[in-house]
């Protein structure tokens, strides 16, 4: 199916995420703690600790508050495009990816994913009306630190097919061998113990494990951050080829490494203190 490159694949609107309410400090508990400390010191310091007690027991209670982590942001990920997301540490980039992937609840807002109905017409499914397992098979998050299981690479790649969400899919070893050729590795790589792999090789396995499940949207959280230049280039090529091989796919790519990734970007977004700005 052909698709215009400006077709929206994911649309999100007015996303808000707040931290949980931080409970107030219970000042009577605090006073009790200080008193216990005071009774346990020797009499010679009693006068001094009484002064200390006055200073360290505040009269007023601290107010409760919720912190705004994602501040009313909206955006669209378009077909065939790479959208690069930059921003300082703690600005909310990873939080946004986890919300879009359905791994973290938002306080309010809407996320819709392009899909098809029985007559193959376009529809947009809301995250609120889609079972979480179904949502996560369409929108996949690739994190910086891959978690692999004990056992061989092959067993790690086959593992998702044991999950109910993917039981309708079949493991395709030929697809993996073709990908490994692109990654300049032989089929013997599949027989290696996962615990013996380098950080870069672990990330390649993690990526293949996700891509084989044919997601429509990839959310990348600094996937090349810990990799050497060669492995990083291989991983970038793997991801770009994945994007180009189906016009209905899209990538949102969080990175601090703007030099390498920015030339590939169709769009550039920037986060600052939970606020999203579209740079281009
Ligand atoms: N589950 C959570 N509950 C409350 N606060 C959180 C939660 N997860 C993250 N935060 C806070 O939200 C803010 C944004 O975190 P986030 O991980 O999205 O930053 P980031 O932009 O991805 O940073 P980095 O570039 O360092 O990865 C931080 O202040 C963090 O402490």
UniProtKB/TrEMBL annotation:
Gene3D superfamilies in the cross-refs: P-loop containing nucleotide triphosphate hydrolases
Matches recorded under InterPro entries: AAA+_ATPase, ABC_transporter-like_ATP-bd, P-loop_NTPase
Domain named ABC transporter: residues: 50-279
Alphabetized Pfam families for the sequence: ABC_tran
Keywords assigned by UniProt, alphabetized: ATP-binding, Nucleotide-binding
UniProt-recorded Gene Ontology molecular function terms: ATP binding
Stated name of the protein: ABC transporter ATP-binding protein
UniProt source species: Psychrobacter glaciei
Lineage: Bacteria, Pseudomonadati, Pseudomonadota, Gammaproteobacteria, Moraxellales
